[in-house]
Amino acid sequence: APGSASLTCNPRKFSEKIALQIQRQAEDIAAFQEVMMDITSTRIQAQKVRQERNLASYYGGSLPNVSQISACPTGNQVT
Which residues form the Transducer of regulated CREB activity N-terminal domain (predicted)? Predict the structure, then answer.
């Protein structure tokens, strides 16, 4: 940038330089917080999935194999 040389050399511009640094820091902090919120929501979703899997195994595990059930005669059939 053409004004960057005068910005770094002129002591009167230090307040502007500090303001730019503060603005950049605020943008960096906002970006960091956004990433951390994404990570947190991903962890919460993963935890819910793990809990659902644990509950599924607690309440009976996987579903029965329907093809095996229909292949076996049961005696409850109406003739």
Answer: 10-64
Residue type, 42: T
Count Cβ atoms below 10 Å from residue 7 Cβ, excluding itself: 13
pLDDT digits (tens, 9 = 90+) for 60-72: 656 667 777 665 5
User: 8 with 17: CB under 8 angstroms?
Assistant: yes
What are the counts of helices (DSSP H) followed by strands (DSSP E) for the chain?
3, 0
Residue spans of the domains in the chain: they are 4-71
Q: Distances from the Cα of 70 to the Cαs of 62, 66, 77, 79, in angstroms?
A: 17, 6, 11, 16
| Digit-coded pLDDT (tens) for 21-66 | 999 999 999 999 999 999 999 999 999 888 888 776 666 656 667 7
